Each structure stands twice: as structure tokens, then as C-alpha cells.
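ok so for the tutorial part 2 we go from a plain amino acid sequence to predicted C-alpha cells. step 1 is just haveing the sequence, like this:
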Amino acid sequence: MMRPRAVFFDVGNTLLEPYPSVSSVCQEVLREFGHDADLAAIDSLMPLVDEYYEDRYRADDTFWTDEEETSSVWVGMYSLLCDRLGISGQAPVIARRVYDEFGKPERWRPYADVVPAVRALREAGVATGIISNWDKRLSSLVDGLGLSGLFDVVVSSADVGLRKPDPRIFMLACEALSVSPEEAVHVGDHHYADVLGARAVGMTPVLIQRNGDSTPVRAACARIRTFADLPGLLGIDG
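step 2 — the prediction. this is what the C-alpha cells look like for a chain of 238 residues:
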């Protein structure tokens, strides 16, 4: 792979992971409202929650670009979780509270391999940035986690009114760093949003599959399990 001038990153499940976990945060909020839900029961419903997310993501092109619609989808998702736990009356209020929690820096943490890898890229003279389907809280979240100094640009779908895989959001990020798409790499965990989106504009995609995820993808691309492999893949070994 040719050494890039810039590397862009997705955020959720790429740079950051929920802390301590989505299920744990849901359990904490439920307890605040007097519901002692079992963590294992919440965990068992996460595939259903993920399916709801994917269905809405494919069906609603304003999800992640319109703030009101984005929050509505997330509230609907966590309301579904409440309903399946037998909690109906307070579901929308609880769901909104969960959504609000995930706007806080303390509810996220960078994967342990992120900071060393991104620093290695920057020390080698490679520009770095973020391209993420996220709400307007992204920049403050990145700043609150002490990561803003690691990225030259942060592009969120809510801020620019475009979402991945739309090629235009990738182009905007490239223009911000004065690089052509062909000179850039995009790293993310989502085949549809990250791999297909980056490839459509001429960027080189790298799919990160953490936790041993072996989900097949339709389009061949470079894959990594950990950010520790990224500098070597890009010909930047320090």
C-alpha cells in the first residue's frame, strides 16, 4: 500500500468504545428510574438494538444529518430496549436520558491502541483527521477526551449535513487538509459507511475488525484487528 499523506478515522468502534459498555450505561440509567434490570438481559437484547439501528440507517437519509431526527432514532432504539424489558410507561424518558449520557466524554474511552498509532502517523508527517456519522456533540467529545491535538480536522455528519457513505463528506475532509482522495486512507469498522464510502471517492479504505469480528464483506479491502498494525500496513514503521 502506498504511503498516504493523510489518514482519516471513523469514531465509534474504531477510535472510541462506550465505557464501561452500552449495556452497563443502560443499566445505570434504568436504576436511576427505579428499574433493576439484569445486565445479562440487557446484553441479550443488544443484537435487536443493533438491528433497529441498521434498519433506520438504511431507510432514513436524515439520520445523522438532522439533529432532531438523529436524537429521535436513538430514543426510539432505547425505547425498544425498554419495551422488551417490560418497561413501557417511562420508556421515552429513559431512552432520552441514555442518549444524553452518551454525549458525555466519561461515557467513552479510546481503545488502548489508538493514541500510540495515531501519534506514530503524525510523527512520520502524516496528517490525521476524523470523518464520522455523529451528532453535533462530536468535537466537544473529542476535546473532552483530550484527543483534539491528535487530529487536524474533525468532520461530523451533523456539522456538514452529509453522512457516510456519501462521497461528498469524504471530499470535504480531504479538502480541509489539502490532499486528494487518492493520497488518503480512511479507517473504519462499517463496510457500508466506511469501506464503500471511501472507495467511492477514491480513498483507500482499511476495515478494522476488533474483537475477532470476521463478518464477511463484499468488497475486498485491507483489514486490521488492531491499530498496532496500521503504521506497518501504511509503510510507516517509525
